[in-house]
């Protein structure tokens, strides 16, 4: 297996200073406590996770549509550490605003990453087929403050980072996870007529026996501010996943939108840029619908003075 690290032409659209350290505790969901073999192919619409999502939808929600600032970098490769600093700076500001009762909007960031392995709080040595201090192919590897285990990010993968105040979205972590899954399930159906589903006891989205979307979140208590998010394989090179146990699921088979569509393309070429644009447009549309948000597209992010975070 020969892999070459990408050489991204990255044009920063925002300053990404290192934000102050945030005191928070990651939430470990029940989703990874029970494993169903991905190869079983049993992804029935009436799964436990589906029923749980349907039941939780009935909980009280905020009246009307809350504003959500959307930062669109879905065609750009943003270095992983810069994206983390950006999220931390937003979370820090949102914590202060929430404490004042002035947190009136949410945030959504969409981007791609250069090749990088990210290791969540549950990552153990057996999840990696390489030395953490010496990642293969010249890629980066970073520990990250989120639930879950190891995953891979790279070009052709659409990553969305929602920074939400869950006090305005039910304050229910299981509902939040199921809602993120719902966004991807709806987006795949509406944009590509791909029927996706959940797997009981796990978090993420599958098409048949292929996992196409991974989810890992972090929640800052007691303000209930979220960070981290969802990675959807659109045109991603899936080879690097062979170097890890994806999300700690042994035997997990990863898939991508491009790979699924190629089976029915009769050899026709697929425009990868167009595919990414369609995925992005569908995901943010369904995100707004599922979370009942009004998206406001922001051209860039301007970090306020550090005194505003105190």
Automatic annotation (TrEMBL):
Annotated EC: 2.3.1.181
Keywords: Acyltransferase, Transferase
PROSITE patterns referenced in this protein's UniProt entry, alphabetically: BPL_LPL_CATALYTIC (PS51733)
Domain of life: Eukaryota
Gene3D superfamilies recorded: Bira Bifunctional Protein, Domain 2
CDD domains, per the entry: LipB
Molecular function GO terms recorded: lipoyl(octanoyl) transferase activity
Limits of the BPL/LPL catalytic domain: 102-295
Pathway, per record: Protein modification; protein lipoylation via endogenous pathway; protein N(6)-(lipoyl)lysine from octanoyl-[acyl-carrier-protein]: step 1/2
Transferase found in the keyword field: yes
Protein family membership: Belongs to the LipB family.
Name the UniProt record assigns to this protein: lipoyl(octanoyl) transferase
């Amino acid at each position: 297996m020969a892999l070459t690290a990408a050489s991204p032409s990255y044009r920063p659209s925002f300053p990404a200073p290192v934000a102050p350290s945030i005191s928070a505790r990651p939430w470990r969901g029940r989703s990874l406590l029970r494993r169903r073999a991905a190869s079983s192919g049993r992804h029935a619409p009436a799964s436990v996770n589906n029923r749980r999502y349907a039941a939780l939808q009935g909980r009280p929600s905020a009246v009307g549509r809350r504003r959500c600032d959307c930062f669109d970098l879905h065609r750009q490769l943003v270095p992983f550490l810069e994206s983390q600093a950006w999220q931390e700076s937003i979370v820090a500001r949102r914590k202060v605003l929430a404490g004042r009762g002035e947190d009136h909007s949410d945030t959504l960031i969409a981007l791609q990453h250069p090749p990088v392995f990210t290791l969540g709080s549950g990552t153990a040595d057996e999840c990696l087929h390489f030395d953490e201090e010496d990642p293969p192919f010249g890629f980066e590897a970073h520990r990250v403050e989120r639930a879950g285990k190891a995953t891979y990010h790279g070009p052709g993968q659409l990553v969305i980072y929602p920074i939400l105040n869950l006090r305005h979205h039910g304050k229910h972590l299981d509902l939040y996870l199921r809602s993120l899954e719902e966004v991807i399930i709806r987006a795949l159906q509406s944009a590509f007529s791909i029927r996706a589903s959940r797997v009981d006891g796990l978090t993420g989205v599958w098409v048949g026996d292929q996992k196409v979307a991974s989810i890992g979140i972090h929640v800052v208590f007691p303000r209930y501010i979220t960070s981290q998010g969802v990675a959807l394989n659109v045109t991603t090179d899936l080879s690097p996943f062979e170097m890890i146990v994806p999300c700690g699921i042994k035997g997990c088979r990863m898939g991508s939108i491009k790979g699924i569509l190629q089976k029915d393309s009769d050899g026709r070429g697929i425009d990868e840029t167009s595919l990414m644009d369609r995925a992005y447009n569908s995901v943010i549309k369904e995100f707004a619908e599922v979370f009942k948000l009004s998206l406001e597209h922001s051209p860039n992010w301007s970090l306020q003075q550090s005194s505003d975070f105190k």
